[in-house]
């Protein structure tokens, strides 16, 4: 099975999960408008996927990258479902930014979502989240996957 087929199946699985818990309403707004595109760029910058929080760097925009899109590498070093859930976590933080500014996030992750370092990053839920709180946050049944 080709990578695009696997990515599409995983994307649809995650969207179904988000629909089941009420985060996607099939109304073309919020998380429903988040697209997914396969691209080699995550592999080039050392990741499995990415999502733009606030604007697209001009050099990425010049080659067609856009906001409100999850970009996934054709081959990931982490489970595909975890990567897509993680990137949807970033999308949720953009769509519901005020929710991520509340005390529950600070208690769970040791600082503000967009803090570069936070008050204490000597601990982190996953190795992936060692530098920034927003990299330690993701969506899953447990809210933190091994990928984070």
How would you describe the overall organization of this protein?
With 148 residues, the chain is mainly alpha-helical. Strands 1-3-2 form a three-stranded mixed sheet. Helices cover 33% and strands 7% of the residues. The model is unreliable at 138-148 (pLDDT under 50). The chain contains five helices and three strands; from the N terminus they run H-E-H-E-H-E-H-H.
The portion of residues assigned to helices is: 25-40%
H-E order:
HEHEHEHH
Biggest sheet: strand arrangement = 1-3-2
Q: Biggest β-sheet, characterized? A: 3 strands, mixed
What is the fold's blueprint, element by element?
Layout: H1 3-20, E1 35-38, H2 41-44, E2 49-51, H3 58-61, E3 69-72, H4 80-95, H5 103-109
Parallel strand pairs: 1-3
Antiparallel strand pairs: 2-3
Tags for this model:
148 residues; mainly alpha; three-stranded mixed β-sheet; 7% strand
Question: Care to give the gist of this entry?
Answer:
The protein is 33% helix and 7% strand. By secondary structure, the protein is mainly alpha-helical.
């Amino acid at each position: 099975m080709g990578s695009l087929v696997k990515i599409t199946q995983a994307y649809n699985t995650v969207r179904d999960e988000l629909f089941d818990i009420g985060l996607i309403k099939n109304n073309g707004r919020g998380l429903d408008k988040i697209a997914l595109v396969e691209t080699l760029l995550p592999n080039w910058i050392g990741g499995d996927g990415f999502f733009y929080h606030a604007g697209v760097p001009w050099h990425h925009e010049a080659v067609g990258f856009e906001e409100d899109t999850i970009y996934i590498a054709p081959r990931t070093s982490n489970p595909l479902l975890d990567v897509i859930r993680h990137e949807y976590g970033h999308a949720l933080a953009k769509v519901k930014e005020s929710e991520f500014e509340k005390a529950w996030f600070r208690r769970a992750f040791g600082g503000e979502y967009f803090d570069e370092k936070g008050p204490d990053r000597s601990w982190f839920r996953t190795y992936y989240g060692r530098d920034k709180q927003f990299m330690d946050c993701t969506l899953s049944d447990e809210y933190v996957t091994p990928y984070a």
